Amino acid sequence: MKFITAFLVAIILLFGVTTTGYAASNEAQPQVHGEAAYLIDVKSGQTLFMKNPDKPLAPASTTKIMTGLLAIEQGNLNDTVTVSSTMLNNKLVYGTQIYLVPGEKMLLSDLLYAMFLNSANDAAVTIAEHIGGDLPSFVKRMNQRAQEIGATQTHFLNPSGLTEAGHVTSAHDLALIARVAYQNPTFAQYVRTKSHTISRSKPDLPTLMVNENKLLWRDSAVDGIKTGYTAAAENCLVASETKDGRQFIGVILKSPGREIYTDMQDMFDYAFTQSKDTILKPAGAVLSTITVNNQPVNLILDRPIYMTQKLDEQSPDLTLHVIPTYTSAPTFVEEGQAIAKVEVLDGETLLNTIPLRSSRSVLPPPPTPNKTLLNSSLAWIMGLFLISAFITLIIRRKKMYAARRWRSQIGLTQRRESN
To answer: What pLDDT, on the 0 to 100 scale, is given for residue 22?
Structure first.
């Protein structure tokens, strides 16, 4: 009970987080021609710009962000993948391809280059079959992962992004998915690669994969991530830009033409010039205290909590929720052990989940003396009982042996007298 009370008091004291207010900004926001857009600060997870953020729209090949993320999380890049006969099904495989042939063997790593850079639909289907066993199973995993990330407006029907009724996402959801994906270093390495030559087991087939993201070639600060186009989805783009220690991810869906690139650049310019990052809580900050074996243990931040503030605007009020990761009060901990987490929320929007680690080690309590004495006494009693039983058995055996000899001698004497 003391543990629970101390924990609740610490949380109540902690969450009076206040921020400094500023006058509202009159700075014009970027003008985006696309149907929907979203701009997110990667460090803080906060939103800087949005347009129709939750409108369900076709994502085209930006779908491959999720396909690639799952392949990297659940597959082995060194796997040799055998291309299936699905490549002959022109209802599932059409549009941009590297012309995979049934029976052809390729490394999973090369298939990912083909999918991310060249946007090859046949590579996406082959990856999905290899990771999921079949397309329906893989698509189910795609939707499960989207739900885990919080992409609640997203519903995938295929791994490539080819047009299907009901295959939709939103600008907000794609920003969330891209932010999680980019935090995987292997994913980040793929999507910022400009060109790569893959190995093919058959001759006269495409091997040079060139990234279709025009911003990647135009601006050295741009470091990914994926383009998309179908007649129904029109032009789609998810992009990342990093400089001066800051990173932003932008999403534009259903843009009518090539202005999608200038619109994305305007969004990035807006983010870098009209906002700044501040540290709300530094790494190592104490967010709460718990009691372990009657000793206080501080819960410290694994990494900083950042806050994005638009210039000349009131900064947002962020809420911190400390959540234990155990079901009952621990009796011992090790220094640096993750024993809780803090959720960072902007209103009802979850921005970050960061581990909280113990500031010190606490050893488990020693056994109680009474229990030790009882265990010792029981051991002695049991030992004496076994020894007594053993001695009694030996005595009985000796008595039985003596009685048998006595009977034998009497019988022998009687037989002599009768003779």
So the answer is: 30
Residue 7: pLDDT band with limits 50, 70, 90: very low
Question: Can you read off the two tokens belonging to residue 240?
Answer: 């990342």
Which of these, 6, 20, 135, lies nearest to 67 by C-alpha position?
A: 135
Residue 330 has a pLDDT of 86
d(CA 190, CA 198): 13
Nearest CA-CA partner of 238 in 192, 277, 197, 186: 192
Contact present, 235 and 256 (Cβ < 8 Å): yes
The stretch 77-81 carries a mean pLDDT of 97
- Mean pLDDT for the chain overall: 86
Instruction: Provide the Cα torsion 148, 154, 158, 161; round to 10°.
Output: -120
Q: How far apart are CA 138 and CA 191, in angstroms?
A: 21
Contacts of 407 (CB under 8 A, 6+ apart): none
Q: What is the DSSP letter of 329?
A: -
Query: What are the residue boundaries of the structural domains of the chain, listed by start?
Result: 2-21+282-358, 36-273, 370-419
Quote the CA–CA distance of 253 and 237 in Å, as a whole number: 7
Please write the tens of the pLDDT for every residue from 169-181. Answer: 999 999 999 999 9
Pairwise CA distance, residues 73 & 66, whole Å: 10
Tokens of residue 57, six digits: 């729209």
In whole angstroms, give the CA distance from residue 235 to residue 258: 8
pLDDT tens digits, 265-281:
999 999 999 999 999 99
Residues constituting the chain: 419
Q: Helix count (H) and strand count (E) of the chain? A: 10, 16
CB-based burial, 45-58: b 16+ in 10 Å, e otherwise: bbbbbbbbbebbbb
Fold of 36-273: Beta-lactamase (3.40.710)
Q: pLDDT tens digits, residue range 182-231?
A: 999 999 999 999 999 999 988 889 999 999 999 999 999 999 999 999 99
Q: Which of left, alpha, beta for 4 (phi over 0: left; psi -120 to 50: alpha)?
A: alpha
Tokens, residue 269 = 């310019």
Residues 245 and 254: beta-carbon distance below 8 Å: no
CATH class of this structure's domain 2-21+282-358: mainly beta
C-alpha closest to that of 207 among 136, 104, 68, 297:
104
Written as six digits, the tokens of 327 are: 């079901």
